[in-house]
Write a structure and sequence with these properties.
Blueprint (H helix, E strand, L loop, with lengths): L2 H9 L7 H31 L8 H11 L1 H21 L6 H32 L3 H40 L11
């Protein structure tokens, strides 16, 4: 599907409610996919490499890491968490309340695992330096966040596919097989 036909399909979603809601879903799905990719990268690359540094190198590295991530990790992550939490109120009508609630739970859960678990682990690493148990705790916190973001991204991707499919069928003048859930 070309970008023009996608825009045409999304613009013809009157049965989905206001068009801005469909565009909001598309933007939130993209942002959540980005944050999910960042979380997977941290889980399997960044945080495990904390163990590869010497105890002497770690404090400087961790401070540099913390200084480098606001624009690429922290800001997009918190925007994702909050926008997912608000999704039940911004969802297109073609997205069921149950799926929107799943996205919201993933956003709130990601926010809580970050604020209550991951950030304290980073703060502890800043205070005490390299510590195997703290790095393990950080990996566990990020594992929860990664799983939740992955579920949220999958639900939104599935919702986008359904909306595009239903809209394409409606645009072609055919009756869709199975209507979107409310």
């Amino acid at each position: 599907m070309t970008q023009q036909s996608l825009a045409s399909t999304l613009d013809s979603t009157s049965s989905m409610g206001p068009v801005w809601r469909v565009w909001n879903l598309a933007a939130l799905a993209a942002l959540t996919a980005y944050s999910t990719g960042v979380a997977w990268q941290a889980q399997f690359v960044s945080y495990p490499l904390y163990r590869a540094l010497s105890a002497e190198e770690f404090p400087g590295y961790h401070l540099a890491y913390n200084a480098a991530i606001p624009g690429v990790v922290i800001i997009p992550g918190f925007v994702t968490f909050l926008a997912c939490a608000a999704f039940p109120w911004t969802r297109p009508t073609g997205v069921s309340r149950r799926l929107a609630a799943t996205v919201a739970i993933c956003g709130v859960g990601s926010l809580l695992s970050t604020v209550l678990w991951a950030i304290p682990m980073h703060d502890r690493l800043d205070r005490i330096g390299q510590d195997a148990a703290t790095i393990t705790g950080l990996l566990q916190a990020n594992g929860v966040r990664t799983a939740l973001l992955t579920v949220g991204a999958a639900v939104m991707s599935w919702s986008m596919v359904r909306i595009i499919r239903v809209s394409a069928v409606a645009s072609a003048g055919r009756r869709p097989t199975g209507s979107p859930h409310r």
